[in-house]
Write a structure and sequence with these properties.
mainly alpha, Lysozyme, 2 strands
Length: about 100
């Protein structure tokens, strides 16, 4: 278990660092929600400005609108086809809720 925890901590630290590299200085709840997304699905959502509305909205500091983009990231490839997955749908809604708490702090 200690090794598993250490690996998880290392992977999550890498996700946080990736978010900070491509979207520096974000409010903590937004950065945390993005780090969770990056940990689970890669940097595209936060860093790929040409292909991610979320990333472009963050650049414009349109944080509420950016946070509301999280539910769009609920799909994954299954047998080569992009499909909506119930677990991802739940998780992205949770990320959206966390992201929107940026206004409270």
């Amino acid at each position: 278990m200690d090794e598993c925890k250490a690996l998880l901590d290392q992977d999550m630290a890498q996700a946080v660092a990736a978010v900070e590299r491509c979207q520096p200085g974000l409010p903590v709840p937004i950065a945390a929600s993005l780090a969770d997304g990056v940990y689970n699905g890669g940097t595209r959502m936060a860093c790929d400005r040409p292909n991610s509305t979320l990333a472009r909205l963050l650049d414009q500091k349109r944080y509420d609108e950016a946070c509301r983009q999280h539910p769009r990231w609920n799909k994954s490839r299954v047998a080569g086809v992009l499909v909506e997955l119930p677990g991802l749908t739940k998780r992205t809604k949770e990320r959206e809720a966390l992201c929107l708490t940026w206004r409270q702090g």
